[in-house]
Predict the structure.
Amino acid sequence: MRLDLFLKASRLVKRRTVAKEACDNGRISLGGKPGKAGSNVRVGDRISLDYGPRVLTVEVLEVPDRPVSKAAATTLYRILSDTRTGDGGGTERTGF
């Protein structure tokens, strides 16, 4: 499954177009390398998402072959780290 489609299916990113833009801007990494929207995602891959003041790293547990429900989306990955950077006092909100 493509990286942008996995991010959408897992609900880590709200829309596929936003996932593609994040990949194009270097805010997503797959296995420690810059993630491209068309990169294949496999079970065991590590994905890091840079939300600005927050960096989320997940491990892929399952790659769906069809759309999944909102409740099942969180079973597709496991959170490895959720790091906040900076002082956190800013009013700027970034996210997907």
